[in-house]
């Protein structure tokens, strides 16, 4: 059982995948904007750019990106979350995969890692995940990650992964920082408890894998 599955089962229950999907459906039904991540990506590249939703969960972001005209692949380590994604959008490309050993066989213009996927990685796998995520990027492609940096912005029981640790892992994977924000609506990063990082990849790391 992964770190994510242990935390989800403890905090939500064994049917966490269904309840997670239902939560966002209810938010959307009452008029809340649940598409911040997709809107952010749309501000970086135009459709039909290739986007990998790495840690896609129940598919909320990938489905919205597909609706906007992007060529999307969704990958998640949790098969139960992908069952919800496939139920909502069976026509899309959903794959079970561990980000620390990821090889999609494709290159993308954007790799998106949202939903606190970074701090929910298995212990000791941040470096390998960074390398494999970078390897999915075409030359000039962008790695976009959003994650909490303190307990207030993380699920209960999830340890903090510091921004310094992430920056170091990304640099070792050949990624260079472009910018960072405090939220998906592009508020300037002020050192607070949530960050959205944007990094790009140099040509020299294009074919590197761990």
Automatic annotation (TrEMBL):
Coiled coil: none
Keyword terms of this UniProt record: Methyltransferase, S-adenosyl-L-methionine, Transferase
All copies of domain Methyltransferase, residue ranges: 51-141
InterPro entries: Methyltransf_25 (IPR041698), SAM-dependent_MTases_sf (IPR029063)
Gene3D superfamilies to which the protein is assigned, alphabetical: Vaccinia Virus protein VP39
CDD domains: AdoMet_MTases
Protein known as: Class I SAM-dependent methyltransferase
Organism: Nocardioides anomalus
Source organism phylogeny: Bacteria, Bacillati, Actinomycetota, Actinomycetes, Propionibacteriales
